[in-house]
Amino acid sequence: MLTPSIIDRLRPWGLTTMAQALQQQLSDPDQAQWRCADRLGLLVDAEWAARESRGVARRVREAPRRLAATPEDLDYQAPRQLPRALVRQLLQGEWIRQHETVIITGPTGVGKTYLLCALGHAACRQHRRVRYYRLPRLLGEAAIARQTGQWLSWLRPRRRWDLLCLDDWGFSSLTVDESHQLLEIIDDRYQERATAIASQVPVDQWPALFPDATLGEAILDRLVHHAHRLTLTGESMRKVLPRRGPDRTTEPADPVASTPGTREV
Asked: In sequence order, what are the residues at sequence separation of 6 or more whose Cβ sits closer than 8 angstroms to the Cβ of residue 179?
């Protein structure tokens, strides 16, 4: 088969990167001398890398986040007690495979949301379905689904997400109805999917958020026990970073395809 015909057939199959790589090989006289297996291997590698990159980008788009946070931009030098070893372990994603929980607490501005989103970004790179929600918005959607008779259809996809990131946990006390809805969401995911939470409220104060102690205990029992906890301290990063200047220490680039992010604030 003539080479132009091969290229024409690759494109309708969606192998556009492989087609482009083949054209590049043909224009490079050095590669033209390589063994067929070596050239084929390069074509497959190029297509695989392109699909991997597109897959990560798609999963990141599907997981709306407040910040474009990436693991590489986490700042371990800031004085906030960020446990480097534990964070690196969590970024590997084994806790997601084990359907566990991560709880990030600390005062405002210490980077809880950024860390939460960086964990979500790492999970996207690992072919996992991730969603980010502020807890008030999640409960608002849940209330509408209840009122419109769409509760079960609304709940179904949320039990399938590999990682649910809940931000702004504990900004206000919950109503009894919200507690019931939250219990159903958490119970569906308990030991089936992973959940990550960021909150300004210390964990020992969470029971006070629930008007019904029994509901609160049921929810917290599924979340808190055996959770990975990160307690951040210190001043707001928004105040600290301008004083520290541009000299920053970040993690090395991820060997897998990376999406540029924003510096942590």
From this structure: 210, 211, 212, 215, 216, 219
